[in-house]
Amino acid sequence: MTEEVDPTERARRRRTTGTSVDFDGRRLSLARRLRRLQRTTLAAKTTVSAAAITQFERGTSRPTNTVVAELALALGVPTGFFQRGRAIEQVPASSAHFRSLRATPAIARDQALAFAEIALAVVDVFEQYVDFPPVTEIIDPVEDEPSRERIAELAAQARAKLGLQAGPVPNVVRLMEAHGIVVLRLPQDIDRKVDAFSTDVGSRPLVLLSPSKHDKARSRFDAAHELGHLVMHHEVEPGSKIIENQAHRFAAEFLAPSAELIPELPTRVDWEALLKLKAKWGISLKALIYRAHDLEVWGDYTYRNASKQLAVQGLPEPGPLGLPESPSLLGRAASLLKDAGIDSTDLAVASRLTEHQINEVIEAGSDLKPKLRLAIDPNEH
Known about the structure:
Blueprint: H1 7-15, H2 25-34, H3 39-44, H4 50-58, H5 65-75, E1 96-98, H6 106-126, H7 148-161, H8 172-178, E2 182-185, E3 197-199, E4 206-209, H9 216-232, H10 241-255, H11 258-261, H12 271-281, H13 285-294, H14 300-313, H15 329-339, H16 344-351, H17 355-364
Parallel strand pairs: 2-4
Antiparallel strand pairs: 1-3, 3-4
């Protein structure tokens, strides 16, 4: 029969194990949010209250060594993870532009933000060893309601700053990485309600793309959309439909400038011509017919007719463009370090992150490699 111990006695026993002297409450918050746990849920897995966990995270009190061990077990990290190490930049929700903020549950958003914080910490430790491309100055804040022409002008200026000539963008993700922007795919365990988002609170801008979009055209548009936020919405409160629409318009102009696209658009619904434009510009048929209407090449009737025909086709659209564009910056950096004899174990020691966290971020920033499926015939002799 288990001896029942009252709360006062439990607290006395915890105190006898000593207080953790170098406990970092920010790291506790980070590990909890990565696990999608409310403080009350985490408290239920330990012998302390939710109020105590709040105090630990805020740094107003420190846990005992026994409680640190309980927290580590509940969160699946080593006790050393909570020790003070390299500072981890906080990414507040007010500094992250989520594509679907209102549709994203707070706990899912917090998990994604926690991953962004881990990613920035990993980038920070990488930069102790590897020189990443310098960050190109692209910020050009907009007034409250810029005109269509002003956003087109900003997109053209961004193209010029990033060294683009006329014509399609060969690879949006690679272009961003070449100019110092870190691009990652969100891990598979992040809630699917979290779409692409971006932030510029760290030492370099960070863009996180959805792993569930296997359509190249959509992923290119997402990347260009986040680039629009980085250009136009520095220190702008995220989440409004207005700024999301602004980023949409920026992406459309960045990928296919109106002055170049208008002469190429068919004046009627011509799917063969539209498929050729899709392949050339790397944008979806849905985006093309929207642009044809928005740029007044098509009237309302033609646009509605085309939209209905496309809806009947369903997803995926005709004319697939292949695999989504994939980030490679961190994967290449990891390869360089490996050649120099530095692996994820060394990076974990340097950053006091876990090897799993290091490897997850590296994978998120590495080329997608198609997997071969090995089939075994159970009837084979």
